[in-house]
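pipeline/complex-builder :: batch 7 item 3
reading input block
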Amino acid sequence: MVTNLQARDAATVLHPYSNLATLPRQGSLILERGEGVFVYDVDGKPYLEGMAGLWCNALGHGREELVEAAAEQMRKLPFAHLFTGKSHDPAIALAEKLKELSPMKAAKVFFCNSGSEANDTQMKLVWYVNNALGRPQKKKIISRIKAYHGVTVASASLTGLPNNHIDFDLPIPGVRHAGCPHHYRFAEAGESEEAFATRLAAELDALIEAEGPETVAAFIAEPVMGAGGVIVPPETYYPKIQAVLEKHDVMLIADEVICGFGRLGEWFGSTALKMKPDTVSIAKQLSSAYAPIAGVIIPDWIDEALTRQSEKIGVFGHGFTYSGHPVAAAVALKTLEIYERENILAHVNGIIPGFQARLKALGDHPLVGEARGTGLVGAVELVADKTTKRSFDARRAIAAKAVGFAQDEGLIVRAIGDAVSICPPLVITSAEIDLLFDRLTAALDRTEAWAAA
Ligand code: PLP
C-alpha cells in the first residue's frame, strides 16, 4: 500500500536513476534517520545499510564529530570561494592532506562537488592540457564498456552503460569504449584470467593503433567497476594495460570515486590493484557522504602546463561556485582525521577475509552464477542456469526482486542488472557482516522460490 508520504513523493520528486513508470505504484522507501550501519524508515523499521548509501557512507550514521565540524565551520565562515584571489583554510588544509595521501606524486587538487563533476573536469583538463602542450589532435579518451563515471554530458559519455546514452544523444565525439574486464561474462571458452587480461590489453593496443596514437590522450578506469556490477579485473590486467598506455603515451585517469579511502583496504584502489595513475578522481568516502565534495588530484606536469597556459591566455576558465566549499572541506578533513585516528584501514583489512568468505560462499546458492568481489565490496550475479550462465528474462527483473525481498528482511542492497551489489560502511563489524549475509541469503531463498513459482 502506498502511504500518503509516498504519494506526495511520487507526485513531486523526479527521482534519479529510477523506473519512473513503476516507482509511483511501488512507493519509495522513505528513510528518516540513521545510527551506525543502520537506517530507519518513517515507521521506525531498521535496515542494515548494505550499500553505505551509494558506496559512500563509510563511517556510518550519527558521527557527532562530523556534525560539529560542519556546525563550527558554518558558524565561522559558511561560505567562501576559491575564484580569483580568494581562498580559505579548510580547502588549503584538505588539499595538503590529499597530496600526502595521493597514490601518485601530486601537485595540486581541484575541488568540485560530485564524482560526475570530477570526471567532467578530467575530460576538460585532458583537452585543455593537450592544447596547452601544442598537440591539439591528442584528445580522445578511452573508457570501458560497463564503466560508470557519472551523468554529466562528458562523464555520461565516459560511462559505458547503455541507459546513460540511449535517448540522451550520447556519447559525445572523441570517446571510445574498450572491453570490460569481466572474466565470467566476457572470457572465451577455456580462456584463463591471465590469457583474458593479455587479450584485453592486445585489444586496447589495437584500438589505439586504429585510432592513431597521436589522437588518443587518456584511458579512464575505476580500479573495481562499481555501478557496472562490481567487476574485479584479473590480477595482471592493470600492469598489462599500463604497458600499452605507456607505449602510446596515453595517460591513465583513475576514477577512485568508489574505491578511494579504504574500500579495498588501502587508501586508494589504484595502489591495491597495481595501477599507476597520472590523475585521480575522488568523491564519496572523501567526506563519508556527510557533505558533497569531490576533486581531481593532478601531477606536476599538468599543473605546469596549466600555469604556462595562463601566462599566455590568462584565466583558467573552469570552476564551480562550490569548488572546495568550506563546510564540505571541513567535514572531509575531519573524515580523513577519523579514518587515521580510528585506523580504518586496519579495521577494514581485519574484516575483509570474513566478508569475502561469506560473499564467496553465496556462489553455492542455486540462483548465484558468480559471487565476486574484493576488499569490502562485492556482488552476486543471479542466473537462470548456473551451468550455461543463462540469464533470467530481463522482464522478470530478478535482481530487483531480490533487493525487494532483502528490504523486507531489513537489508538495503542494490540491483545492477542481474547482480545484487553489496558495499557496506567501512566501520561494519564482523557480527554485522554475518547479519548482512544472513539476511541476503534469506532474500535469495525467497527469490528462488518466487522464480520457481
Ligand atoms: N565515478 C564512479 C566510479 C562512481 O561510482 C560514481 C557514482 O556512483 C561517479 C563517478 C559519479 O559520482 P556522482 O554521482 O557523485 O556524480
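note: The longest helix spans residues 430-452.
queue -> next item
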